[in-house]
Design goal:
By secondary structure, this protein is α+β, with helices and mostly antiparallel strands. It has helices at 44-50, 96-104, 122-128, 221-231, 252-267, and strands spanning 6-7, 41-42, 52-58, 61-67, 76-79, 86-88, 110-112, 134-137, 151-154, 158-162, 165-169, 178-182, 191-195, 199-200, 207-208, 210-212, 217-218, 238-241, 247-248. It is 18% helix and 26% strand. Helix 4 (221-231) runs antiparallel to helix 5. The model has no long low-confidence stretch (mean pLDDT 97).
Length: 272
């Protein structure tokens, strides 16, 4: 019987098939990795038996994660808007309890995802909420491992999906890497939801710009300057990163400028 297999390492779900692929195309690439133990797969029915959802406040937003951690370990964010809620990024698990809780919070109007590492079970998520659109930048089309009529591949540099909620192609980590600007966030000062394109650092004093996190490959200086220039015109005071507690709570625009300058300066350092 055909099953939609899910890569255990990154959480990406594939088209239904009788047997899983020999390796995950997302992981068998320098921005990810296949672990020494080899490629491993699961399915959504199995994942529902071994994992459960976690919900908690992340600043003004509702964070949605998985316990124990699964795949890359990111958490999604629910942005509650008067016109309808938007899920930012995605996690591999989706079950009835999660649907009930989100419906109780107003349901879903749309899903938007920063880059392919967080596509996970996006088609399943859409179907669970009546086929809501999933907004992905078209530049990353080759990394879509499960197709669906819900997928909206947008082009260009920006896309407003609701009044005050705009997707921005930042690039960097992926060509179509996307951040989301929330104009009403931070009490009207603006917020950026960045995934790990502008990765909030562990000390929460900077953001980092990385080509490959697990393989320790930094993003080049010119690319960092491009990413920084693409978010510079937008007003924002807060940055929400990809993981629990990775939030820059204030003065985030200054943090981005200083982080880009620091990154570029370090790349130019002479050997000590």
């Amino acid at each position: 019987m055909a099953q939609a297999f899910i890569c255990v390492t990154c959480g990406t779900q594939y088209e239904p098939s009788e047997l899983p692929a020999p390796s995950c195309a997302i992981c068998d690439e320098e921005r990810q990795y296949i672990p020494p133990s080899g490629q491993a797969w699961t399915t959504l029915p199995k994942l529902r038996k071994t994992h459960m959802a976690t919900f908690r406040r992340e600043g003004e937003l509702v964070g949605i994660g998985t316990s124990p951690s699964f795949g890359i370990g990111q958490r999604a964010l629910l942005v509650r808007m008067p016109q309808g809620n938007v899920l930012w990024d995605c996690v591999g698990l989706i079950d009835g309890a999660m649907v009930d809780i989100i419906e109780g919070l107003g349901g879903l109007h749309a899903i938007a995802i920063s880059h392919p590492h967080y596509y996970t079970t996006m088609v399943e998520w859409s179907e669970a909420f009546g086929g809501v659109p999933v907004h992905l930048h078209a530049a990353d089309k080759r990394w879509i491992m499960r197709s669906g009529s819900c997928l909206d591949l947008w082009h260009g540099e920006t896309k407003e999906i609701l009044p005050g909620l705009t997707l921005i192609r930042a690039g960097g980590h992926f060509e179509g890497g996307t951040v989301m600007h929330w104009a009403q966030g931070a009490d009207g000062k603006g917020a950026l939801l960045t995934g790990d394109l502008l990765q909030v650092t562990t000390d929460r004093k900077f953001v980092s710009f990385i080509w490959s996190f697990p393989n320790f490959i930094p993003l080049g200086g010119n690319a960092v300057q491009t990413v920084a220039s693409r978010v510079e015109p937008w007003p924002y005071d807060v940055i929400y990163g990809a993981f629990w507690d990775r939030v820059i709570p204030s003065d985030a625009k200054r943090v981005t400028r200083e982080s880009a300058a620091r990154h570029f300066a370090i790349l130019q350092r002479e050997a000590l």
